[in-house]
Structure formats: structure tokens, C-alpha cells
Amino acid sequence: VQLQASGGGLVQPGDSLRLSCAASGRTFSRFNMGWFRQAPGKEREFVAVITNDGTTIYEDTVKGHFTISRDNAKNTCYLQTDTLKPEDSAVYYCYAQLDGTLRWGQGTLFTVSS
Length: 114
Prior knowledge:
Blueprint: E1 3-6, E2 9-11, E3 17-23, E4 32-38, E5 45-50, E6 56-58, E7 66-71, E8 76-81, E9 90-98, E10 101-104, E11 108-112
Parallel strand pairs: 2-11
Antiparallel strand pairs: 1-3, 3-8, 4-5, 4-9, 5-6, 7-8, 9-10, 9-11
């Protein structure tokens, strides 16, 4: 599977943004899909994951204002980000994981600034 992330940009505090991660291949529905992010000068950190059966797990600081979802018919995973804060600014990376296979998409940057 190959991944293409999109949806980044410049937004203001309190705004919303939806990131997309489009996957190639016919086995998308079998993969667990997720997002990490990396802010300047910081380590890459986990954000959220949605398993192949639809279970979702979130990092504590994004619970309640980020929502991960997937559309298997479109081979796409989404990260809806709401009530954005400056500290949410980062490069966001999507990934696909199945057993021992792990694939990363290229990052998409969004910046939250007034």
C-alpha cells in the first residue's frame, strides 16, 4: 500500500481542518490506519489510530477535538481536527499497519496561528 496525505494549510486558532490519507491497493480495509505528528524541534508523537474493525484510540491531548475515521470504499483515512490550537501545529504523517507491514505517507503540514 502507498499513502498520500493531504489537507494541510494555515488556519487560525479555533478553526477546523480535515486531513486525508489516500491509499493505493486493494487491501486497504485490512490495515489499521493512523496519524502521528511532529512539531519543530520535537519528536514524532502518536495522534490517533483506527483499526480495521473501526476501533479508535487517541492521544490524550487530542481527545474530544480530533476525530479519526475511514472510508474503505474510497481507500481513505481522515483526521478531522477541530478547535485547533497553536500547539497543534506540526507535520502530520499517516501510516498503515498490518501485521509486520508498516507504511508511512509523506507529511502534510498545518500551522495554527493568528
